[in-house]
Design a protein that fits this description.
Helix content is 40%, strand content 24%. By secondary structure, the protein is of the alpha/beta class.
Length: 251
């Protein structure tokens, strides 16, 4: 009798453990998708401080991704180029959809979906400066965003185009970069074209050509179970025209 009772208790414990584990998996699958996004890029990820709501292509993409993954919704966490990698590595977010471009160095740290947006990195100047080519910036000061890969790109390109090189002036926000250009604190600013267009006006111009091509992808923790799910969902959205519709909506 004691053996039967002990066996029954063991079976009950095993059943309870399995039910608990199943509940955990179900909760994880149905929990909100926590996404790191930008709050300062018009048409991509922008926070309306009055309403407290985010808007843009990447916001729509995050919502659709959460739906296709069977999540109960999406929670947004604002990130910056200086903080986004730490936020993902520490597990504060499930993924990044934050104008985060795919490159070899980053692929060593994170997994990426297929690119959902392709853009060019450009130089923007005041027309009064009379700069016409990249090589004209030799010996000048170029503003770049803190935490972005733009500074490295500028340095590498100017080594080819000018023996004088450039001085980099980092700013924490794109608005600060625009203000620095307006004041004349920098001779040019360098950023992705989709971002630069928000700060373009009749007194400014792009220097001809593209500094680099940037492919934005959804980043997830390296080797995580979520990586394959996200990759497959993004592939589906690219194939069925969902991503194209979002781009057209926000372009």
């Amino acid at each position: 009798m004691k053996k039967i009772r002990a066996l029954s208790l063991a079976l009950l414990a095993l059943l309870a453990a399995n039910l608990f584990a199943g509940g955990q998996r179900a909760l994880a699958a149905g929990a909100p998708l926590v996404v790191g996004v930008r709050d300062d890029i018009v048409n991509f990820g922008f926070l309306n401080e009055t309403t407290g709501k985010y808007y843009g292509l990447e916001i729509d993409l995050a919502k659709e991704l959460a739906s296709r993954l069977g999540r109960s919704g999406v929670e947004f966490v604002t990130v910056t180029p200086a903080t986004r990698e730490e936020v993902l590595q520490s597990g504060q977010v499930d993924c990044l959809i934050a104008c985060y471009s795919i490159d070899q160095e980053r692929e060593e740290l994170f997994d990426f979906s297929a690119p959902y947006y392709t853009d060019d990195t450009v130089f923007m100047v005041q027309t009064s400066s009379r700069f016409e080519r990249w090589m004209d910036l030799g010996g000048m000061t170029v503003g770049v965003l803190t935490g972005s890969n733009t500074g490295e790109l500028v340095t590498d390109v100017m080594k080819v185009y000018s023996h004088k090189g450039v001085t980099l002036a980092e700013q924490d926000t794109y608005q600060a970069l625009s203000d620095a250009l307006e004041r004349g604190d920098v001779d040019a600013v360098c950023m992705d074209g989709c971002i630069a267009q928000a700060y373009m006006n009749e007194d400014r111009a792009y220097l001809p050509g593209s500094l680099a091509t940037q492919n934005y992808g959804v980043a997830t923790a390296k080797g995580s179970a979520l990586s394959q799910q996200v990759a497959e969902a993004v592939d589906e959205m690219l194939a069925d025209g969902t991503v194209a519709a979002y781009i057209e909506k926000w372009d």
